[in-house]
Design goal:
Layout lengths: L1 E3 L4 E3 L3 H9 L6 H11 L4 H17 L8
Antiparallel strand pairs: 1-2
């Protein structure tokens, strides 16, 4: 579980969400995250990319993750 104090929101980080959270512990590109998830979970690459991107964007918007160029 992750908490955004600024927004007062909780995020349940189980399954793929928890794995994404663990992968974001160190600097990593979104495409590398998608690649890892496709290897580890039964998911189509396009679906994984769309859902992973949306999830990371929510984390960034909530202040729980940072996007770097």
């Amino acid at each position: 579980m992750a908490l955004s104090v600024d927004l007062g929101r909780f995020f349940a980080l189980e399954g793929p969400g928890g794995r994404i959270w663990n992968l974001l512990e160190r600097p990593i590109s979104a495409s590398a995250v998608v690649q890892k998830l496709v290897e580890e979970f039964d998911v189509e690459p396009r679906t994984c990319e769309a859902e992973t991107t949306a999830f990371i964007e929510r984390l960034v918007h909530s202040g729980l993750a940072r996007a770097e160029a």
